[in-house]
Structure formats: structure tokens, C-alpha cells
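To: structure subgroup
Subject: Chain for Friday's discussion

All,

I'm putting the inputs and outputs inline so they're searchable in the archive.
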Amino acid sequence: MKPCLYFLLVLLIVCPSLLPAAEIADTPAHRKAREEMVSQQLRSRGISAVPVLNAMAKVPRHAFVPAHMQPQAYRDHPLPIGEGQTISQPYIVALMTESLALQGQEHVLEVGTGSGYQAAVLAEIVKQVTTIEIKEILHRRASNLLDRLGYTSITALFDDGYFGHAPAAPFDCIMITAAVDHIPPPLLRQLKPGGRLILPLGNPFSYQNLVLVHKKMNDVFVKQITGVLFVPMTGHALEK
């Protein structure tokens, strides 16, 4: 074997990430399932924002769930993704996204990357997304997948999202995708005046209220949207 070929073989064994990534299939059946999801689960429940509907119809949700769960990817319920976490029901993803009233030029902070699906939906609508995940396995998995899907406008970080990401603040909007019993003060400080923050607020181990927070100068106004059930925010949030 020639030395250069031997060196390349050793390099690929030591660094398998240099191998070409397997193509993520998006078949006519997948696209049909997304169209039905948008029609039957979103439009029928009042989701009407065109950018949100278009994003939900485009992002391959099946790519964000474990392989054995892919036949259920477009059904009307959340799914486990490992590490005690879930990918939210499609309707809830659309509802949270629509509630932020996004115009397209925003920089959105997402707390709780999970599978990366919500970040991808946001990235189809806004200019920039910063997403933070506290569980390293999920962070690595989601970061790799988002890269493979070509989402260059998403910055994925491994950290405790309770503290936000001050170097990129202030944010136009913030979305928290795990339950917490208070609005984290660091996130409020990193939200622009006039900005919106959406989160499941309440007992992390029971049902919560999905609420939309408007920040106006030094005041915040909270609007209840609906009852929800999210997994708890971990890290500092549970130490409070």
C-alpha cells in the first residue's frame, strides 16, 4: 500500500467524522406526511402564520427522532429522543413559534436544543438562532444533524441555558423549551426592550401554563396561552 493511502486510511479510522455523512432521506411519503400534519394538526387548530406553516412543511421532522420512531414522526404527540427528553408535539412547536410574532430579521435564543427540530423551524423564519443544550449527548447529536442539514444560521452551544448567552445578547426573542417555575432573571436581562419570551411556566413536575412575556422597558407583561406539559429545565433551574 502506498504511504499516502495508508496515512489516509489511518486518519479515517481515528477520525471517522471525516467520512462523508450519510444522506438524510426525504421521500415523497415524508413530504405527504408533512402536508397532512400541517393541514390536519396545525391549520385546523388555528395556526395561520404563513412563515410558520411553510417552515413546518419544509423541515424533515423524521430526521430529528430516533430511527425506530420515524414512522411516528408526524403524528399528533411528542416523542422521546433519549436522555429523558422529548421532541414536542408538532402543534406545540408551531404554536410557540407563531406566538413570538416573528418578522424574519430577529435573532432568537432557544433554551433547550433537544433534538434540534425547534431550532430548525426557527431558522427557516428568522435571520439567526442561538440554541443552548445542557445535555452533552443531545448537544453533539443535534449540532451534527443541523450541520448536515445545512443550517448555517444556527449557533449550537453546550451550556446551562438558564444563564443565556451574554456575548450574543440582547436577543429579539427567547424561547424556553423546558418547564421552569419562574422566569430566569438572566434571560430577562438578555431580552431586548420590546422583545418577547415564551416558556412553559409552572411546576416542572406537573402541568404548566404556556405564557408569552413582553418586555417593555423595565416592565414585563405576561399573557397565558394554554396548558402544557414539558419536561423540567435541569441545571441551575432545579437548584433554585
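Points worth raising on Friday:
Strands lie at 79-82, 85-87, 107-111, 128-133, 154-158, 171-176, 191-202, 208-216, 219-228.
Residues 20 and 74 are 28 Å apart (CA to CA).

D.
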